[in-house]
């Protein structure tokens, strides 16, 4: 597709007039998760059918092949509408870019069009009970089996695994190498024999995270993403895209600044100078995050690694979510913790306050991001690592 930004915005406006759902009018992902997922798939397919999915993705795989300025125009036109980003950030913002960069031609042709249309939802199978911030300590094992492998192990904190059709999995294929080597990335069928998903209950009452158990799951050579034993490169690329995606739009942040402003007007606090200053501060932070996200998107679109910029954006976006959630609690007052069941906002503000801390953890904790910035921006010495060159099988774990 070619054309001006104005033409794109007109097409988006026409689409939303027919298919758009205002934020807050869509099925609640916490109260009606099944309906939310179904509505998200319908919306994404309609977007693809209208030729508006994958603004910056190559046309060969169903995208539009446009630049970050077109993506920004799309986002501006869609402001105030439900985009179902909670379900699609991992697949479209993280798995898709990795497949575009490292996948074979067969993998890109097979996986990217249905990913873009939401015919297949994807998840990320990285973290383990003993490998969170130290992801390279992962112990899930892929044992040779003919021309393929048998995978056994456990993953945890896997968002939307119970609604996913496929996922990108990290498994150790050579324990004789140091922990950052000997890892391979696989494209995994979540319906394959031996894959068991168990949702985990969160403080909000949701069950969006999951444990995933892998018991002798068969993967073939065609499932390898990148090169065998070179999965750390793929993982680093995936984590970079995760931070870019979270800097652009924190996953499912339920309390928006627009909603807080509307609340202030309804409750008569819009004229309160303290509230007005807090809203102004949040607005400035919001604009900073948005503009920084555009800068990062611009780097990615021309093939440059944004590096530590992604960590800066991720930190800022997580702090903004926490700032807005706290502001909502202040404006709502007692109604934030005790509300009339008939109130359509109901427990939204309390939910947002409980949810916000997760955004400082997802995609790498604030401490991890600070370490990245210290080493790569400030030039500080690397964190001590005595096990970096030790074969994984010789490490003391647990």
From TrEMBL:
Family, as annotated: Belongs to the acyl-CoA dehydrogenase family.
Domain Acyl-CoA dehydrogenase/oxidase C-terminal: 229-378
Region forming the signal peptide: none
Acyl-CoA oxidase/dehydrogenase middle domain location: 123-217
Keywords, alphabetical: FAD, Flavoprotein, Oxidoreductase
The keyword Protein biosynthesis belongs to this UniProt entry's keyword annotation: no
Stretches assigned to the Acyl-CoA dehydrogenase/oxidase N-terminal domain: 44-117
Protein's name in the database: Alkylation response protein AidB-like acyl-CoA dehydrogenase
Transmembrane segments: none
Cofactor: FAD
Cellular component per GO, a single term: plasma membrane
One GO MF term attached to the UniProt entry: flavin adenine dinucleotide binding
């Amino acid at each position: 597709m070619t054309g001006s930004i104005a033409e794109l915005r007109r097409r988006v406006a026409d689409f939303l007039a027919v298919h758009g759902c205002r934020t807050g009018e869509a099925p609640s992902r916490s109260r009606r998760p099944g309906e939310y997922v179904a509505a998200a798939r319908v919306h994404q397919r309609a977007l693809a059918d209208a030729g508006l999915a994958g603004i910056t993705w190559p046309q060969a795989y169903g995208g539009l092949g446009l630049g970050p300025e077109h993506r920004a125009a799309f986002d501006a036109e869609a402001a105030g509408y439900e985009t179902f980003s909670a379900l699609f950030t991992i697949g479209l913002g993280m798995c898709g870019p990795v497949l575009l960069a490292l996948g074979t031609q067969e993998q890109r042709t097979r996986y990217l069009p249905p990913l873009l249309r939401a015919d297949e939802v994807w998840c990320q199978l990285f973290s383990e009970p003993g490998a969170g911030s130290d992801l390279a300590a992962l112990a899930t094992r892929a044992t040779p089996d003919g021309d393929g492998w048998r995978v056994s192990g456990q993953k945890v904190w896997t968002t939307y695994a119970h609604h996913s059709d496929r996922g990108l999995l990290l498994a150790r294929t050579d324990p004789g190498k140091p922990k950052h080597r000997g890892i391979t990335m696989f494209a995994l069928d979540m319906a394959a024999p031996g894959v068991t998903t168990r949702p985990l209950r969160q403080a909000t009452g949701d069950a969006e995270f999951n444990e995933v158990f892998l018991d002798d799951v068969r993967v073939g050579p065609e499932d390898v993403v990148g090169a065998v034993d070179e999965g750390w490169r793929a993982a680093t690329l995936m984590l970079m895209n995760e931070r870019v995606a979270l800097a652009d739009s924190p996953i499912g942040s339920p309390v928006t600044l627009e909603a807080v402003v509307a609340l202030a007007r309804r409750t008569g606090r819009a004229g309160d100078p303290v509230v007005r200053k807090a809203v102004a501060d949040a607005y400035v932070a919001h604009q900073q995050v948005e503009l920084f996200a555009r800068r990062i998107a611009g780097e990615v679109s021309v093939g440059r690694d944004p590096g530590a910029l992604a960590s800066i954006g991720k930190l800022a976006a997580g702090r903004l979510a926490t700032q807005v959630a706290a502001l909502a609690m202040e404006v709502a007052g007692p109604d934030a913790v005790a509300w009339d069941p008939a109130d359509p906002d109901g427990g939204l503000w309390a939910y947002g306050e409980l949810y916000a801390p997760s955004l400082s953890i997802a995609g790498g904790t604030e401490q991890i991001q600070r370490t990245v910035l210290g080493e790569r921006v400030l030039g500080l010495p690397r964190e001590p690592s005595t096990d970096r060159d030790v074969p994984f099988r010789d490490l003391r774990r647990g």
